[in-house]
UniProtKB/TrEMBL annotation:
Domain (Aminotransferase class I/classII large): residue spans on this chain: 2-99
GO MF terms, alphabetically ordered: pyridoxal phosphate binding; transaminase activity
Cofactor list: pyridoxal 5'-phosphate
Signal peptide limits: none
Any Pfam family: Aminotran_1_2
Alphabetical list of Gene3D superfamilies matching this protein: Aspartate Aminotransferase, domain 1 (3.90.1150.10), Type I PLP-dependent aspartate aminotransferase-like (Major domain) (3.40.640.10)
Protein name, as recorded: Aspartate/tyrosine/aromatic aminotransferase
Keyword terms of this UniProt record: Aminotransferase, Transferase
Length: 99
């Protein structure tokens, strides 16, 4: 039983672990040139800035996140009575914006 249990444990690592070529690719990505990461981060930063600026221009004062591509915003007071689900539906149906 001990040998079978040990074999089962080793097999589970093999069967359920991350696929070896994927691990090798991840190592190469982490050790390689990071310019693409910087480029993507810059693109997200620009998109975030456009969104936050646009919301501010509409009077929706949201915080400018420092380390996220997501903008967390309270429901505007005029729509607070709807609750989050109904407000999200209204945005989707009337403004074609998904939140």
């Amino acid at each position: 039983p001990e040998l079978v249990n040990a074999l089962a444990r080793i097999k589970s690592y093999h069967d359920y672990g991350t696929f070896t070529p994927l691990q090798v690719a991840a190592i190469a990505a982490l050790e390689g040139d990071q310019q693409c990461v910087l480029d993507i981060a810059e693109q997200y930063r620009q998109r975030r800035n456009v969104l936050v600026k646009g919301l501010h221009e509409l009077g929706w004062m949201v915080e400018n996140p420092k380390a996220s591509m997501y903008v967390w915003a309270k429901i505007p007071e005029a729509y607070a009575h709807l609750g989050s689900l109904e407000f999200a539906k209204k945005l989707l149906l009337e403004a074609k914006v998904c939140v």
